[in-house]
Amino acid sequence: MFAGKVWWFSIREEEVMSNAYKLSYYAWITQGIPAVQIEAAVEKFATALATELNKSDPGATVTVQMYPDVPPQIAAVIGEERHIALINPLGLVFATRSSKNVNAVAVALRKDAVTGDIGPFYRAQIYTANPAVQSLADIKGRSMGFGSPISTSNFLFPANLLKTKHLLWFTSSLNFLGGHPQVAMAVYAGKIDVGAGHDGVILDLATQPGYQDAEQKLRRICWIESLPSDPVAVNIPDDNERQRVAEALVRVGQDPAVIQQAISIFWGGSTGLAATTTRAYNPIVTVLQDLALTQSDLSN
To answer: Contact 228/211 with Cβ under 8 angstroms?
Structure first.
């Protein structure tokens, strides 16, 4: 009888723990927005998700964890089950390479900067304030600024475009400045000739004190299309449980109040969430292969 009671208690304890989830994000998930505002938005999202999960899984909890950068978040989502990660696209790719239990289940929807269409993609741009730079060909011999090497729009896709045009290694210097705002400010000030960033980087700079004329001073050289938007990744080995969580994420991501109070803040204007799969991020794998880059190369 005693052994039976111990066995019963162990099962009950496992059941109690099985619906405790961690929701993580990285510090620069949205640049230019105060950290306290991002934290509040993620907490609101976690609360809404827990409420939704409780409809089919009473007692489910969602706790929030912030990581200072993408690499430690990658390590955490690989090593922890029932981990839900608001992660960047490159982080997803590296995490799924390391663990078959990590999958993309939702994607942030974006409004296309050119067409106005809503979808799971966005654009990057290469831009300048130097009047001598009128086209991509004029980048040769000029200084080039990127943000974080583990960003798709702030480095990977723009660098790949320059490589395909045989320009990447013919700039006078390649500079990693830390993020989208830092690159835009450096280009504005003439400290570097050309910068790369997401589709709203010039508009974002124009909202900052002292840079109100950014839209007049900074000039786009070209667009880079069809970058996969930010994913939500999960480490949930059980197929049925993963599907339940994925569906809950999408339902929460379509709630207008959650979009306004959380999603549009920590994903910089995102219009909601839709279902996705890891395969949707294969274009990033291809670019990594073309540039012969590994996680170690981009994390150091």
So the answer is: no
pTM as predicted: 0.91
Radius of gyration of the chain (CA): 21
Q: Do 2-108+230-299 and 121-227 fold alike per CATH?
A: yes
Neighbouring-strand partners of residue 231? 107
Q: How many CA atoms lie within 13 A of 201 on its CB side?
A: 30
- How much helix, strand and coil, in percent to the nearest 5, is found in the chain? 45, 25, 30
Let me know the angle formed at the C-alpha of 199 by 195 and 200, rounded to the nearest 5 degrees: 95
The sign of the torsion formed by the CA atoms of 148, 154, 157, 158 equals negative
Coil/strand/helix, residue 177? coil
Residue 237 DSSP one-character state? -
What are the domain boundaries of the chain? 2-108+230-299, 121-227
Q: pLDDT for 114-147, tens place per residue?
A: 999 999 999 999 999 999 999 999 999 999 999 9
> Which run of H or of E encompasses 74?
helix 70-79
May I ask the CATH architecture of the domain 121-227? Answer: 3-Layer(aba) Sandwich (3.40)
The SS3 call for residue 197 is strand
Phi, psi dihedral angles at 42 (to 5 degrees) = -65, -40
Quick one: fold of 2-108+230-299? D-Maltodextrin-Binding Protein; domain 2 (3.40.190)
